Amino acid sequence: MEQEKLMPNQYTRYLVPSDFYDIGGDKRLLIPFTNGDMIGFVNRSGEIVVNPRYALCFGECHNETDFIRVAEIEPYGTTRSVGSVSAYYRYLFGLMDYAGRLVFPVEYHNIKPAFGNKRLYTIVNRGGRHAVMTVEGEEIVPYGRYDYIGGFDNGFARVKIGEVTNGRNDSDCKWGLINEKGDEVLPVEYDNIWNFYGKGRKDTNIVKDGNTSVFLF
Predict the structure, then answer these.
(1) Which pLDDT score, from 0 to 100, does residue 17 have?
(2) 183: three-class secondary structure by DSSP
(3) CB–CB of 191/198 below 8 Å?
(4) SS (H, E, C) 10-36
(5) CA 166, 75, 136, 203 torsion: positive or negative?
(6) What pLDDT is stored for residue 171 in this prediction?
(7) Global pTM?
(8) Measuring CA to CA, which residue among 145, 202, 199 is closest to residue 176?
């Protein structure tokens, strides 16, 4: 049986031992490395900037305007009805700049970068509440305004008011669209807005009272 060949894309990375790696040819300002199961970062000179402490990292720093999302593992437990405790693990995310400094502390359940805007992020705190922040600390959308905020793509993000229970939308759940300033470009009165984040689309479908139309970015 013929083996499947790897088809590299922009997300593909090759892991090689340090003996085979030319660090001087790497143009990134921060270069991730592993020590055991943990990830740290060195600079172009091979000097350790961040000691190995992270379980995950996303993104690369090619210049001083780039940021890297990092994550640590947090153990937690829940009490079952019979009184015993079930133990689990989850990731907590933070955001690091080109010098290894934490712009957002490692305490968020999720951090979604905006496509096309390196300074804007949708964040989810430990309580599951959503907000929109800039890397300068400006609060674009405060916690509590919406029950859900998606990631920004083409300058827009989906927002929702109302909870989702067991995967089904409550009858009072409504959707809208906001721009990168936090302004509502579509009021929160739609039954559904199709997810477009990271899909490379230039439009999305919006649904209201059983009628579907197209919103162009």
Answers:
(1) 87
(2) coil
(3) no
(4) CCCCCCCCHHHCCHHHCCCCEEEEEEC
(5) negative
(6) 62
(7) 0.88
(8) 145
